[in-house]
Specification:
five-stranded antiparallel β-sheet; Uridine Diphospho-n-acetylenolpyruvylglucosamine Reductase, domain 3; binds FE2/S2 (inorganic) cluster; Enolase-like, domain 1; binds flavin-adenine dinucleotide; 3 domains; alpha+beta; DNA polymerase, domain 1
């Protein structure tokens, strides 16, 4: 397999034109699961991590141009006020490790009907800027999704950016799943109100073969709000209007069977698409990071990549060239345990110890921010780290203890 690593956007487009079969990889949180489980074995990977243009965003005439490679974490931190619907959706994606790596461009590339970016992109009338060496075009989000996990990209095209109008009014995103963290949507919905143009935007996710708008519901609500003079007032919506709107959204949906599937466990060969986790454990003899799910679900392989928390199972080995990785082995100073490690031992937060290395790194990442976290923040920070035997009370106790002893307490 070829591992193509362009250093600029022009190089990336040239590489894609010369190798249309090359599979782009950005955060890798979808691609690496497919590679780990042998669901896909492309002849070439096109690593977009070093294309700095993709990791930028800018504002032009009230429209945000969001580079395809901006992570969910940055989107939440830097654009939450301007793109509230998309930021709300981003907050529900996976765990901190997934949000640090995953991108809206990758969500569009995967085009899963359950992708959380899609409803807000549809509701806010976004356009997808795609490019090839032949030129650039903007595809309205409504035309981008062409089937289950299919999109309108030509084989030589890459997603450059997403063009999204800054919110002109309230936006809301809601997602139903089987638990309240680390969950793929069973159904999701976004609504965006624009009081200036008196229009309503909607996006339905995971309830049809492709994400889609509920056009009739949009028209109905815009008219009902105008009729009742509610565009300029904050009075509650009449129950009958809300009920009719709900019915029209329901009518626009066409639920599908779940497309998340598994495939046979892969036999690892030596190639650049193998995961960082495999390289650490099997090639470098660093067994601290554990291998449990290989799909970013359990967090037992959590490490720092250039100081950012990631799941090592979702990073391609080739993407790590020239980068710094710190594993749990790097926390202790020789034989002296790090205070976080010591706290886990003292609080009895370790039984089989399988989840412990990942929890230690994730806890370290939380506490190094320098503020003493509330229990709710601890739960959120550790949502991507599953423990199968100790139970989370002891783990919470260990985090509180470590916070009390943190070497660099809040100033
Ligand atoms: C544990 C776990 C939890 C998850 N939870 C959620 C969730 O709650 N909600 C959700 O929506 N998703 C979730 N995902 C899926 C995934 O994180 C998202 O789809 C994410 O947005 C993918 O972004 P990425 O940068 O990692 O994409 P990658 O894996 O790098 O790429 C995904 C696809 O997009 C293509 N691609 C990437 N960049 C480009 C580009 N610039 N041009 C053209 N094609 C491109 C790739 O070829 C590939 O087909 C989860 C994944 C895991 C492992
Ligand atoms: S998250 Fe990487 S092995 Fe489970
Ligand atoms: S201590 Fe066994 S899985 Fe957490």
């Amino acid at each position: 397999m070829d591992f193509l690593q362009p250093a600029s956007w022009d190089e990336a487009l040239a590489a894609k034109a010369a190798n249309p079969e090359a599979l782009p990889i950005a955060g890798g949180t979808d691609v690496m699961v497919e590679l780990n489980f042998d669901a896909r074995r492309p002849s070439a990977l096109l690593d977009l991590n070093r294309v700095s243009e993709l990791a930028e965003w800018a504002t032009e005439n009230g429209t945000i141009r969001l580079g395809a490679g901006v992570s969910y974490t940055r989107l939440i931190d830097e654009l939450g006020g301007r793109l509230p619907g998309l930021a709300m959706a981003a907050r529900t994606v996976g765990s901190p490790q997934i949000r640090n790596r995953g991108t809206v461009g990758g969500n569009l590339g995967a085009a899963s009907p359950a992708g959380d970016s899609h409803p807000p992109l549809l509701a806010s009338g976004a356009g997808i800027e795609v490019a090839s060496t032949r030129g650039t075009r903007v595809i309205p989000a409504t035309d981008f999704y062409t089937g289950v996990k299919k999109n309108a990209l030509a084989p030589d095209e890459l997603i450059a950016a997403i063009l999204i109008p800054s919110a002109a009014g309230p936006q809301q995103f809601s997602k139903i799943g089987t638990r309240n963290a680390m969950v793929i949507a069973v159904a999701s919905f976004c609504i965006s109100l624009d009081p200036r143009s008196e229009t309503v935007g909607t996006g339905i996710g995971s309830a049809a073969p492709t994400p889609r708008r509920a056009l009739q519901a949009e028209r109905f609500l815009a008219g009902a709000l105008a009729e009742a003079g509610l565009w300029q007032s904050r009075t509650g919506l009449p129950a009958s209007v809300a009920a009719e709107f709900g019915e029209l959204v329901k009518a626009a949906a066409a639920p599908i069977d779940d497309v998340r599937g598994t495939s046979a466990y892969r036999l690892h060969a030596l190639w650049e698409g193998e995961s960082l986790l495999y390289v650490l454990r099997e090639r470098m003899g660093l067994p601290g990071s554990k291998n449990a799910c290989e799909q970013g679900e359990c967090g037992s392989c959590t490490v720092y990549l250039d100081d950012t928390l990631v799941c090592a199972c979702l990073v391609a080995a080739g993407q790590v060239q020239g980068r710094t990785v710190v594993t749990v082995e790097g926390l202790a100073s020789g034989d002296v345990l790090h205070p976080v490690q010591q706290a886990f031992v003292e609080a009895g937060a370790v039984q089989c110890g399988f989840c412990t290395p990942g929890l230690l790194i994730a806890t370290h990442d939380l506490l190094r921010r320098g503020t003493r976290p509330a229990d709710a923040e601890v739960r959120e920070a550790l949502a991507g780290n599953l423990c199968r035997c100790t139970g989370y009370e002891k783990i919470l106790e260990a985090v509180r203890l470590a916070a009390d002893r943190w070497p660099e307490p809040a100033s």
